[in-house]
Amino acid sequence: MENLLDIIGIQNVLLIVAIFNVILLIAFVIAIVKITNISKKYKNFMQKLGNGKHIEEDLENYMYRVERVEKQNGEMVNLVKNLDHDLKRCIQKVGIIRYNAFNDTGSDLSFALALLDENNDGVVLNGIYSREMSNIYAKPVEDGKSSYTISEEEKEAIRKAIAFDDTYKIK
User: Fold this and answer.
1) What local confidence, expressed as pLDDT, does residue 157 receive?
2) Cβ atoms of 143 and 125 closer than 8 Å
3) In what helix (H) or strand (E) does residue 24 lie, and over which residues does it extend?
4) Based on CB atoms within 10 Å of each CB, which residue in 81, 94, 140, 141 is the most buried?
5) Which residues have C-beta within 8 Å of that of residue 95, sequence separation ≥ 6?
């Protein structure tokens, strides 16, 4: 090694190392300038993309809004489930029969009306009309049947109500 240093000379080695350091310093300064320019272009691009605001702020805002919408959507799903549960107990099926209860009346002025929920529970009303009086009788209905004696017209009204297929169901 000493022979190599003697041949080249220590001063020349120091000169080569100094030149190499200057070249590295120039490359480092150029790299810093390029990175600074790219950083400025990136910031300008992001501001233009975000309409004058930083896109990061826009993304955070959108994420907040998406989370809020997801929460509201979950609340609405629960509300719809509760409404669907409540709707099962509402009158959904209707059956009506008009008939002539007595031969001495002119037309079908008497009626049997069945009002049922989804489970075929509800009430059957029987309105009997005659020339002297008019009476309405109500009988409870459970699962399409009544614990009371019911007439053929009431049975037919219940059958019509059960066959009534105009219900709206949420799946």
Assistant:
1) 94
2) no
3) helix 10-49
4) 141
5) 113, 114, 116, 156, 157, 158, 159, 160, 161, 162, 163, 164
Run of H or E residues at 43: helix 10-49
124 Cβ contact list (under 8 Å, min separation 6): 112, 113, 114, 115, 138, 139, 141, 146, 150, 154, 157, 158
Cα–Cα dist 39/150, whole Å: 87
Q: Which residues of the chain have pLDDT under 70?
A: 1-8, 49-54, 104-106, 165-171
Closest CA to 96 of 157, 21, 20, 35: 157
For residue 103, the model assigns a pLDDT of 74
Over residues 8-47, the pLDDT tens digits come to: 677 777 888 899 999 999 999 999 999 999 998 888 777 7
Residue with tokens 């009371």: 148
- Report strand pairing: 122-129 vs 134-141: antiparallel
Under 8 Å between Cβ of 109 and 169: no
The answer to whether 161 touches 116, Cβ cutoff 8 Å, is yes
Polymer length in residues for the chain: 171
Read off the tokens for 89: 């107990």
